[in-house]
C-alpha cells in the first residue's frame, strides 16, 4: 500500500536532518565521548558480608507457595482450577515437610511448592493448628535433597537484635528484608478466634506474600514464622509479627506425628458469657467454669432459676486471665503433666439472676463444638 506525504512536511523533515548531521566548514572538530572512570568502592562492609551470607546460605530452604481453588462453570458445569493466592514457607526436614501459615492455604483445594532451584512439586496437607496459624505441607522431592532451615530459640531474644526475613512479597520471589526485633511477647487474635501469644514484633518489611516465611537471626537460625502485619494500607508499615520458634518447635512435631495439635487443658468447659455475668453481678474478674471435673466445680441452677456460680479461675501462675481464649493460650505454654498454680474464686455461696435461655443456648453451642472436635479427633 502506497501513501503520499504533503511536500511541505517532507521538506521540513529533510531540513531538520540536515541540521543534525551536517556541519558547515566553520565547525570545530568534535571530541569523542568517553565513559566516566569508575571509582573503586573497596571491600564490602562486615554487615553487608553478613547479610549476603545469610541470604545465600538459607535462600534454598525457603519456598514459594501458590494455591488454587476449584470452581464450577455455571453454564457448562465443568470444574476448573483457578489461582487463589501466594505465600511463603520453609523446609522443616529432609523428608520434605514444609512449614507455612494456616491462612496461606486456607480455602485452597490445591497447593504447589516451588523450590529456589526452580523445581515445582504438588503439596499435601499434613496437619494444621489454626490457634497458632501454623500448617505443615508435604512434598516428595526428587533427586537433589532439600535443606532444612537451622532452628534457633526465641526465649532469649532481645529487643534490638538484627533479623532477616526471606519470602515472596506480592509474588516477588525470594526477597530479603532486614530489620531488628522491635518488641517481644506481643499477643494477637488469630482468625480462628484464639489468642496467639509471645509473638515477635519486627520492623523488617513484611508484606502480603511474606506470610509463612522464616524470620532469621544474624546467625541464620530460625527464630519465628512471619504471620501478620499491622498496617492501615495492607502493606508494610514497619510493624510485623512472627510466631516464635519455641512455639513452632513444639507444635510442628505434633502436626507431623498426629495431624493435629492437642494443647494441654484443665478438663473444664468455660463460658465467656457466664464470666461476664459473674464480673457484672459479683465484681469477680476471671474465667467462670461452666462444667468441670474434680477438683473444679461448675455452675448450676438453683431455686427460682437462680444461677449458682462454680469456680472462677482468676490467674495462671500469677497472671490474670479473663477469657477462655486467654486461658487456653496461657496453658499452651505448658506440657501435659506440668504442675500449674491457679488462683481460683469459689462461688459456692453466691447466687444471681441470669437469663436461663441465654445460658442454655450457650450450653448447646458448647456441646456442638465439643462434638465437632471429637469427630475431628476420631477422624
Describe it for me?
The protein is an alpha+beta fold. The chain folds into 3 domains: 56-138, Thrombin, subunit H, CATH 2.40.10; 162-258, Thrombin, subunit H, CATH 2.40.10; 268-378, Roll (Pdz3 Domain). The chain is 23% helix and 32% strand. The chain has helices at 7-21, 46-58, 102-105, 245-258, 272-282, 324-331, 356-378; strands at 62-72, 79-91, 97-100, 110-114, 120-129, 134-138, 162-167, 175-189, 195-202, 214-217, 222-229, 240-244, 268-270, 287-292, 300-301, 306-308, 311-316, 319-320, 342-346, 352-353. The chain has a 6-stranded antiparallel barrel. It is elongated, with a radius of gyration of 31 Å. The chain starts with 6 loop residues before the first helix and ends with a helix. The model is unreliable at 1-5, 13-18 and 351-379 (pLDDT under 50).
Secondary structure blueprint with pairings:
Layout: H1 7-21, H2 46-58, E1 62-72, E2 79-91, E3 97-100, H3 102-105, E4 110-114, E5 120-129, E6 134-138, E7 162-167, E8 175-189, E9 195-202, E10 214-217, E11 222-229, E12 240-244, H4 245-258, E13 268-270, H5 272-282, E14 287-292, E15 300-301, E16 306-308, E17 311-316, E18 319-320, H6 324-331, E19 342-346, E20 352-353, H7 356-378
Antiparallel strand pairs: 1-2, 1-4, 2-3, 3-6, 4-5, 5-6, 7-8, 7-10, 8-9, 9-12, 10-11, 11-12, 13-14, 14-17, 15-16, 16-20, 17-18, 17-19
Amino acid at each position: 500500500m502506497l501513501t503520499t506525504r504533503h511536500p511541505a512536511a517532507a521538506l521540513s523533515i529533510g531540513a531538520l536532518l540536515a541540521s543534525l548531521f551536517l556541519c558547515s566548514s566553520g565547525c570545530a572538530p568534535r571530541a569523542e565521548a568517553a565513559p566516566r572512570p569508575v571509582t573503586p568502592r573497596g571491600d564490602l562492609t562486615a554487615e553487608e558480608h553478613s547479610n549476603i551470607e545469610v541470604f545465600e546460605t538459607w535462600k534454598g530452604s525457603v519456598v514459594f507457595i501458590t494455591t488454587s481453588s476449584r470452581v464450577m462453570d455455571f453454564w457448562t458445569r465443568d470444574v476448573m482450577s483457578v489461582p487463589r493466592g501466594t505465600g511463603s514457607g520453609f523446609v522443616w526436614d529432609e523428608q520434605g515437610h514444609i512449614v507455612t501459615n494456616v491462612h496461606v492455604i486456607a480455602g485452597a483445594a490445591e497447593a504447589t511448592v516451588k523450590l529456589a532451584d526452580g523445581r515445582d512439586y504438588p503439596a499435601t496437607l499434613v496437619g494444621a493448628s489454626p490457634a497458632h496459624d501454623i500448617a505443615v505441607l508435604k512434598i516428595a522431592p526428587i533427586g537433589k535433597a532439600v535443606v532444612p532451615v537451622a532452628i534457633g530459640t526465641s526465649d532469649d531474644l532481645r529487643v534490638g537484635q538484627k533479623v532477616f526475613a526471606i519470602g515472596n512479597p506480592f509474588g516477588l520471589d525470594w526477597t530479603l528484608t532486614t530489620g531488628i526485633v522491635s518488641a517481644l511477647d506481643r499477643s494477637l487474635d488469630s482468625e480462628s478466634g484464639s489468642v496467639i501469644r509471645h509473638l515477635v514484633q519486627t520492623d523488617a518489611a513484611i508484606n502480603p506474600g511474606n506470610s509463612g516465611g522464616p524470620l532469621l537471626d544474624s546467625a541464620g537460625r530460625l527464630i519465628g514464622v512471619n504471620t501478620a502485619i499491622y498496617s492501615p494500607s495492607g502493606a508494610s508499615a514497619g510493624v510485623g509479627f512472627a510466631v516464635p520458634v519455641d512455639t513452632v518447635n513444639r507444635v510442628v512435631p505434633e502436626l507431623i506425628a498426629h495431624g493435629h495439635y492437642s494443647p494441654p487443658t484443665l478438663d473444664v468447659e468455660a463460658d465467656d458469657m457466664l464470666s461476664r455475668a459473674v464480673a457484672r453481678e459479683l465484681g469477680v474478674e476471671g474465667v467462670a467454669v461452666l462444667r468441670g471435673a474434680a477438683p473444679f466445680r461448675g455452675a448450676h441452677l438453683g431455686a427460682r432459676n437462680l444461677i449458682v456460680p462454680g469456680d472462677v479461675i482468676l490467674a495462671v501462675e500469677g497472671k490474670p486471665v479473663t477469657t477462655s481464649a486467654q486461658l487456653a493460650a496461657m496453658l499452651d505454654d505448658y506440657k501435659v503433666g506440668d504442675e500449674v498454680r491457679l488462683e481460683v474464686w469459689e462461688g459456692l455461696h453466691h447466687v444471681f439472676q441470669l437469663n436461663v435461655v441465654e445460658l442454655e443456648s450457650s450450653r448447646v453451642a458448647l456441646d456442638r463444638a465439643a462434638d465437632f472436635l471429637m469427630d475431628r479427633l476420631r477422624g
